[in-house]
């Protein structure tokens, strides 16, 4: 049960280990994007469920997507209005996104910036990370760091003494950009009014 400090967690992530930390929705399992396979293995997760690229700011995530100037303008307007927050934007992936993050459709990537101070501080040091909820595949999301440490003994888990902002426990809303505009893939705690 490797419960670690924030500094140890950041160092571990940069060194290529799977880590877990709180976000504004549910705690995340995270790893460097090229090591996405480690998350699938830890969760026993099917490869048809893509991971999300989480960053400290939207600016950190734009290099991982590609589109026309007009599309980027639309995406940036949505991001400016709702991020940081519980919204995941599924956009066309650039060549920087490893295929292992979305094995069944490597042409797209979900990006998100959590509205959570500790998560943002970690991501600012590590750079964008491949993430997913901290739970075994098919089971409910684990909401406490101690439960995560017990379930995932090889994952570096942030210690419970940190002053956590409470997570909502609700998943992010997921919207995908299509040729017809935005499509809601999962309705979470944010409702977009201007799609």
From TrEMBL:
Protein name: L-threonylcarbamoyladenylate synthase
EC number of the protein: 2.7.7.87
Subcellular location: Cytoplasm
One of the record's GO cellular component terms: cytoplasm
Domain YrdC-like: 1-190
InterPro entries from the UniProt entry: DHBP_synth_RibB-like_a/b_dom, Sua5-like_dom, TC-AMP_synthase_SUA5
SUPFAM superfamilies xrefs: YrdC/RibB (SSF55821)
PANTHER family: SUA5, THREONYLCARBAMOYL-AMP SYNTHASE
